[in-house]
Amino acid sequence: MTTTGSTSSTTSTSPGAAILATLGSASGIDMNALAQNIATAEFLGRNNSLTAQSTQLQTQISDASALKSQLLTLASSVGDRVRTGDLAATPSIANASVASVSAGTGGGGKGVYTLEVSSIAASQVVTSPPYTASTDTVGSGSLTLRFGTISGGTFTEDTAHAATTITIAAGSTLADAASAINAANAGVTAYVASTSSGAQLVLKGSEGATNAFVLDATETAGDPGLASLAWTAADTSRQVGTAADAAFKLDGVAMTSATNALTDIAPGLSMTLTGTNIGSPTRITFANPTSAITTTMSDLAGALNEIVTSLTSDTDAKTGSLNGDPGARALRTALSQLPSQVIMPNAADGSPRTLADLGLRINRDGTFDIDSTRLSATLASDPAGAAAMFTTGIYGVYSTMDSMSRKLTSITDPASIGYSIARFTTKATDVTRLQSDLAARQAAEQQRLIARFSHADSVVGVYKSTLTFIQAQIAAWNTKGN
Fold first, then answer.
1. pTM above the 0.70 mark?
2. Dist CA 30 CA 1 (whole Å)
3. Are 136 and 199 in contact (CB under 8 A)?
């Protein structure tokens, strides 16, 4: 008896041929195989259609995900390249003991600056009387920090700078007092120093002349001691540091600052003052990033072409899995507009504003290359402007690539690769569910047929048994007749 025991065996040939072979078996009919073959034949068309849909959707998900990955990698790589700093006009200072310098937040530094520092910003530092140890108790009550300026032992309070009152609980130690002051976040830090005289509370304010402070104490009745921590401007014996502004000249222009960290003090220039050089100005110059920019633009064109190659294959009119997909169309449009897009809207008149100004151009087939003549002209006429395009700010090459990547990989914008992936994934999930439902229906139909054919098989068995008995009787009669 020939038995077809699995769906895979029946789908490798025509289900109808398998049914005929089963019915033609000399040893009888295999009702289980017959039911399976009929159920398979009944659902074959729908199963094949769903399988084809699933395969197509998985291909679309894979190809769209590859494009998404390329976009994210491009933006990340450009960001990493910009953050190295060598694409910007990076400043350097001849006398590094005077200040450390860096590119300003807007980039665009150029030329030469001179810097002469006569004083750097400083913080007020005062100490408490010495204690035996940091675990000594200091009494209880409250300490109040008031801020302003100190000159000649006289404190002038800045009423616009709110005073801060700190509660010192009963039983507090010198270390507890330091912790309470720090917890107040008033702009004064405290710690306990182990000095040759003993444990002393050290209070340090913020940089700048207007951040000087005095410390008032109010003791709890019956628990004295807190007044020892109070400090007034007249007590110069406990003052070890004076609050002061920085004073310096940049290109001979006198300036002051409450802090040594000077952000965007000049176009493309930030610095932190660290020392003085009275009478000996030092020079700040900017490096030329021309070579690095040329290499980076060539690399950018190559990376864009990798995306173009994938996109062209995916949108092929005959074989492309993403042909007609809105996300793929949006990506092609974004790429075609990239060279002419204004990426530096804040640039001065005449300064480079587009990637085309940096030599990026698009060919008729959608691929990119570099117009070296235009790039060289831009770098020669405005190297600082070109360098300013390579920043991590809200404008420039990195911002443009990052924005394009974010928009095209979004899952909320219908015209994006990210949305396409989500749509394909949802459809694939629906197809999987339909396949599962269809398999259940096929199994139920097969069981229904098995039950029906089993009954028929039992009836045939009875008939065959009766026929066998009659044939035996006839044979016996024929023998007796002989």
1. no
2. 8
3. yes
- Tokens linked to 352: 């480079």
> Does residue 246 contact residue 120 with C-beta atoms inside 8 Å?
yes
One-letter amino acid identity for 400? T
Structure tokens at 228: 């020892």
Token pair belonging to 89: 């006009």
CA distances (Å), 342 to each of 80, 290, 295, 339, in order? 22, 21, 21, 8
Residue pair 422/37 in contact by the 8 Å Cβ criterion: no
Q: Tell me the mean pLDDT per 10 residues along the chain, length 482.
A: 41 44 46 81 90 93 95 94 81 96 76 95 97 97 98 95 97 98 97 96 97 97 96 95 97 97 91 97 90 94 96 94 94 95 91 96 95 94 87 90 94 94 94 92 85 69 71 79 55
The contacts found for 304-309 with CB under 8 angstroms, 24 or more apart, are 304/74, 304/335, 304/338, 304/368, 305/367, 305/368, 306/70, 307/67, 307/70, 307/71, 307/74, 307/331, 307/335, 308/335, 308/366, 308/367, 308/368
